[in-house]
Design brief:
Blueprint lengths: L10 E10 L6 H12 L9 H27 L7 H19 L4 E9 L4 H10 L2 E8 L6 H15 L7 E4 L7 H18 L9 E7 L3 H5 L4 H15 L7 E6 L12 H10 L4 E5 L8 H17 L4 E4 L7 H14 L13 H14 L2
Parallel strand pairs: 1-2, 1-3, 3-4, 5-6, 5-7, 7-8
Helix pairs in contact: 1-2, 3-11, 6-8, 6-11, 9-10
Catalytic activity: heme b + 2 H(+) = protoporphyrin IX + Fe(2+); Fe-coproporphyrin III + 2 H(+) = coproporphyrin III + Fe(2+)
Main location: cytoplasm
Pathway: Porphyrin-containing compound metabolism; protoheme biosynthesis; protoheme from protoporphyrin-IX: step 1/1
């Protein structure tokens, strides 16, 4: 077999990018994950020396064990991390969707922190003949803390390669019609199964997005605006009017002001005001994870019921719903325009041998 890399068939690849997850719900595994995650200057914009002392002296020793218990509460039997499970399913089914359309496209998943690492996955794609690469972040709303950080890591890896692939990236798809339609169907599917809220009686749909420090918005990060637009478009697609749904932000950390309204206090207030039922959905999370399954499906439920609420219904994330896989395909296909979605440079063995001899002669 000829080993000349220039004689191999070349392929187009789509790489899904997600945040990451601990390898196990243990203090040791969570500590390693949190250390990598919270050491990213895109995530925490505090002078490095000061933050190193806070992170290693306070946060990691205290939060690792507590977070491990939370991860254990949502860990899937035999499947492990929900985020990993659903993200892998998305990559697998997106690849199958390309195949259904007769297109040969490599599809894989890389995590920004933890495994499978971006470097490992990129090298595996390269070994399969990748010459064109589309980055599809599993962050519908762009933020420097998520999308940009994942892009940074891809750029870092590719900066070490002599022969780089053609590269395209999808910055965001917060208002893409296919994405909004998938969100709508996910909510309607839950309502078909469990009954629709009675908005005339004060029931509410809460859309909870991951929060960010307010200073990120003031420095120009478009995340806040994109979340609000997603919420508005989803509300409109469901036939709701202002007041029937509420956009909130969860996972606040530290003492600094974050994007408002905060999810937990908003849910508490709804309960105190006599709201009997809320349905809560996390449009910014394409796959269920700790922040949705523990913080929203469990902790927020307790808050609502403790403050007068009667009926709390968590709507699962898109995960591997057929409508979401179709939306991912449409979004990716739009950005693949002009690239061959098959295998290029297919040649016969005889032709390969002839070209190999020519190549060998040219360098001797």
């Amino acid at each position: 077999m000829n080993s000349n890399p220039h004689l191999r068939s070349t392929k187009t690849a789509v790489l899904l990018l997600n945040l990451g997850t601990p390898d196990a719900p243990t203090a040791k595994a969570v500590r390693a994950y949190l250390k990598e995650f919270l050491s990213d200057p895109r995530v925490v914009e505090i002078p490095r020396v000061i933050w190193w002392c806070i992170l290693n002296g306070i946060i990691l020793p205290i939060r690792s064990g507590a977070s491990a218990k939370k991860y254990a509460s949502i860990w899937l039997p035999k499947l492990g991390s929900p985020l990993m499970h659903y993200s892998r399913l998305q990559a697998k089914e997106l690849g199958e969707k390309f195949a259904e359309h007769g297109q040969v496209v490599l599809v894989d998943l890389a995590m920004r922190y933890g495994q499978p690492s971006t470097q490992h996955v990129l090298e595996a794609l390269k070994a399969q003949g990748m010459e064109r690469l589309l980055l599809l972040p599993l962050y519908p709303q762009y933020s420097a803390t998520t999308s940009a950080s994942s892009f940074d890591e891809v750029f870092r890896v590719l900066s070490t390669w002599r022969d780089q692939p053609e590269l395209r990236l999808i910055k965001h798809y917060h208002d893409n019609p296919a994405y909004i339609s998938a969100l709508r169907d996910q909510v309607l599917g839950a309502w078909d199964k469990n009954g629709r809220p009675d908005f005339d009686k004060g029931d509410r749909l809460v859309m909870s997005f991951h929060g960010l420090p307010k200073r990120n918005l003031m420095k120009g990060d478009p995340y806040h605006c994109e979340c609000l637009k997603t919420g508005r478009l989803l509300g409109e697609s469901l036939g709701l009017v202002s007041g029937q749904y509420l956009v909130t932000f969860q996972s606040r950390f530290g003492r600094a002001e974050w994007l408002k309204p905060y999810t937990a206090p908003a849910i508490e207030q709804l309960g105190k005001e006599g709201c009997q039922r809320i349905d809560i959905f996390c449009p910014g999370f394409p796959a269920d994870c700790l922040e949705t399954l523990e913080e929203i499906a469990m902790e927020a439920r307790e808050i609502f019921l403790e403050h007068g609420g009667k009926d709390y219904r968590y709507i699962p994330c898109l995960n591997s719903s057929p409508k979401w896989i179709e939306a991912m395909y449409e979004i990716a296909h739009q950005h693949l325009a002009g690239w061959p979605l098959g295998v290029e440079s297919e040649i016969t063995l005889a032709e390969r041998d002839r070209l190999a001899e020519l190549a060998k002669a040219s360098i001797t």
